[in-house]
Amino acid sequence: DAMVIQNPRYQVTQFGKPVTLSCSQTLNHNVMYWYQQKSSQAPKLLFHYYDKDFNNEADTPDNFQSRRPNTSFCFLDIRSPGLGDAAMYLCATSDRGVRYEQYFGPGTRLTVT
Amino acid sequence: GIQVEQSPPDLILQEGANSTLRCNFSDSVNNLQWFHQNPWGQLINLFYIPSGTKQNGRLSATTVATERYSLLYISSSQTTDSGVYFCAVGDTGNQFYFGTGTSLTVIP
Fold this sequence. Notes:
The structure holds two protein chains of two kinds.
Chain A: E1 4-7, E2 10-13, E3 19-25, E4 31-37, E5 44-50, E6 53-56, E7 64-67, E8 73-78, E9 87-95, E10 99-104, E11 108-112
Parallel strand pairs in A: 2-11
Antiparallel strand pairs in A: 1-3, 3-8, 4-5, 4-9, 5-6, 7-8, 9-10, 9-11
Chain B: E1 4-7, E2 10-14, E3 19-25, E4 31-37, E5 43-48, E6 52-56, E7 59-64, E8 69-74, E9 83-90, E10 96-98, E11 102-107
Parallel strand pairs in B: 2-11
Antiparallel strand pairs in B: 1-3, 3-8, 4-5, 4-9, 6-7, 7-8, 9-10, 9-11
């Protein structure tokens, strides 16, 4: 089945220790998104790629970076995680030009100790 | 960006009851989706419904784009319907805007 996969599902990192979260998709969609969701809040868009074009939200901290080496994969790098970065990180895809429906992966729950 | 408001914020139902969740948005959209976030945090697509009416089993949704609102109907609710329901809208770009969600608890 075509899907969005995120690894790992749970990640524990130490304060200040860089961490990378992974997202892959078999849908061949041209847009990939990273969202941050904290407890009892709505998902908050961090950035998205339309093909190789990177679009950063204005209020996304510089501590968050992303890479998309090919259509299938997208990575979220947190360079120096703080306690406030503990959250669920959600990856989504959509196919611009067909219809704009988003498909989400299962998420990675990040804990910062 | 587009403002999205959902109501009610919290809802408690007895199993078997029906409910209506509402999503209001502040501008024209070309995409509207309803999601159910399960207890493990995954967002499950319920409907892609920028306009019109759709039904899927006990769930149905209606979007009146000209009046900038959408409704999600849940009939004969079950305990497995518990969770948070989000409405998300998109404009002509790649941006999506989420509402604040409705937290639904269905009690046996």
